[in-house]
Amino acid sequence: MSFLQKSRKQLESAHDAYLSRRSNPKTHDMITSIVRSHDWNGDNNACKLLGQILAFAAEWQDYKMIEFLLNSEHCQVGIQLDNHTQDYNVLSGLIKNIDHNTINQTYQLITSVLFNAYTYRKNIDFNKPIHEYAQGVTSTSGGTLAHLCLHVIIARHLDATLLSLLINHKICRDDIDINRHDTNENSPLMIAIYAEDLNCTKCIINHMQSNLRRHRYPDDQTLRVKNILQKAKRMAESTQSQYDLSERSGGEKASIRNEIEAFINSQLIDLSFHTDVDESKSISDISFESNSQFGDIDMTEDYLEGFQSDEKCVSTTANETLSDDDTKEEQMFYGRTFK
Questions:
Q1: Which of 39-48, 78-87, 244-253, 272-281 has the highest mean pLDDT?
Q2: Higher confidence at residue 276 or residue 257?
Q3: Could you tell me where the DSSP H helices lie in 175-309?
Q4: Res. 264: pLDDT tops 80
Q5: What are the extents of the domains in the chain?
Q6: CB–CB of 161/187 below 8 Å?
Q7: Could you write out the three-class secondary structure of 70-130?
Q8: Could you give the 3-state DSSP secondary structure of residue 20?
């Protein structure tokens, strides 16, 4: 048996041991040694095994292993980021396990995963059904990564940064479809409105609006966005929250709901100014759960650098991030920025 064949057998054994949660320092050392012993970038079978180890490292919150695999020159080019025959991957594992104690490190790792995908032109299916069950989160069976983000944000009282990081990154923005799911679950926008989460609502609506303008979708797409906003407005005006918001006073709830309604109204007005919509088309012809793909804004270099630092994430207003009206869609980052 050649050295390479022996190394492959060792990788298979280490893979099986890691996935069965028999991971220990010896298993870590074995995986590290095997990866360093050979350039695996051109070995599809090996990179598939390493991709599964990467996904389970996210499940076990083994951040040291994730960083090693993403940064090793012997596998970072070829390692698979999406287990195509399974619903889980490294992103879903990182998202489902995020909490206030791991938030900064998780943001950095998610950014590293997306940067790896962008750098080496790797495909990640952002729209496939995810069957992840996270602590404190209701079933997301059939939802996508965007749904999982929203459920985790709401359940753990996180800000909108996690969602914005996912849908705004260059590798995601033109592929991710924030309206798609395979169950009767609400769309992410409706989930955000039900939860009275202003920043998540802004983030999702801006996702639709900015890509609509950037790609100059035809009128039927414009009408679809308009009707999604109209439906969102009706829900914001009349729907009672389905989530436990007992920590908020009645005045706080009313204020947030008014802000959501005002923002949706402003976007409807803005849409009317920028587009000519054929009002003769029937609303019934428009699917609110369309499979049309809406991307989103560019993430600036400063924004990406923010995720690499340990500095505190602070609130900001939309106006503080604008440079001029012509680049509004490309500059705006609702809810959070880094200093």
A1: 39-48
A2: 257
A3: 188-194, 198-215, 219-238, 250-274, 301-308
A4: yes
A5: 187-339
A6: no
A7: HHCCCCCCCCCCECCCCCCEHHHHHHHHCCCCCHHHHHHHHHHHHHHHHHCCCCCCCCCCE
A8: coil
Element (H, E) at 43: none
pLDDT tens-digit profile of 284-338?
332 333 333 333 333 333 333 333 333 333 233 233 332 333 333 333 322 223 2
Name the nearest CA neighbour of 175 among 82, 261, 273, 263: 82
Higher pLDDT, 160 or 256: 160
- Residue 283 is given by DSSP the state G
143 bridge partner residues: 130
Q: How far apart are CA 147 and CA 153, in angstroms?
A: 10
The rounded distance, in Å, linking the Cα atoms of 155 and 158 is 8
C-alpha span between 65 and 79 (Å, rounded): 13
Closest by CA to 327, choosing from 210, 203, 178, 233, is 210
Phi, psi of 91, deg, nearest 5: -65, -45
Rounded Cα gap, residues 48 and 62, in angstroms: 18
Tokens at residue 207, please?
Answer: 């996702």
* CA 166 to mean position of chain CA atoms: 3
How much is the pLDDT for 95?
95
DSSP 178: T
Q: Provide φ and ψ at 89, rounded to 5°.
A: -160, 180
Identity of residue 122 = K
Counting Cα atoms < 13 Å in the Cβ hemisphere of 218 gives 2
Q: How many helices (H) and strands (E) does the chain have?
A: 15, 2
For 135, other C-beta atoms within 10 Å of its C-beta total: 10
Q: Look up tokens 């909490």; give the residue.
A: 99
Amino acid at 207: H
The two tokens of residue 313 are 């994430």
